[in-house]
Write a structure and sequence with these properties.
Length: 112
């Protein structure tokens, strides 16, 4: 998708602070962090959101990447939160599937 922000980040057309990358998945720091550690994990291929995903194996790859990212940024001991905002009520603002990894502070529950 030519004018999709996260596709452009995946292609390196827009800079990001990479935390993890493999053939299918990229993880980079959120530009507006909601926690001391806030990393976005995206598939390099474009899917609007999890409802549009037709490759569930990709979710397993995103979770595996999240596990690696958690270790890399140092939150695997105290824990972290993984979030996939989906659609309007889910608060999704970028229409390219992504998982948030949030940590390095005690996160409240339930979210607002
Ligand atoms: P969501 O609201 O779940 O769609 O999350 C989109 C996230 O993308 C937000 O947390 C934004 O802060 C983040 N974001 C937007 N633009 C960029 C960018 N250029 N680099 C990194 N993160 C971004
Ligand atoms: Zn995209």
């Amino acid at each position: 998708m030519d004018n999709c922000l996260f596709c452009r980040i995946a292609k390196g057309e827009i800079p990001s602070t990479k935390v993890y990358e493999d053939e299918t998945v990229l993880a980079f720091r959120d530009i507006s962090p909601a926690a001391p550690e806030h990393v976005l994990i995206i598939p390099k291929a474009h899917y609007d959101n999890v409802l549009k995903l037709d490759d569930d194996a990709l979710l397993a790859k995103m979770f595996a990447a999240a596990r690696t990212v958690a270790k890399t940024v140092g939150v695997s001991e105290n824990g972290f939160r993984l979030v996939i905002n989906t659609g309007r009520d889910g608060g999704q603002t970028v229409e390219h599937l992504h998982m948030h990894l949030l940590g390095a502070r005690e996160l409240g529950w339930p979210p607002g």
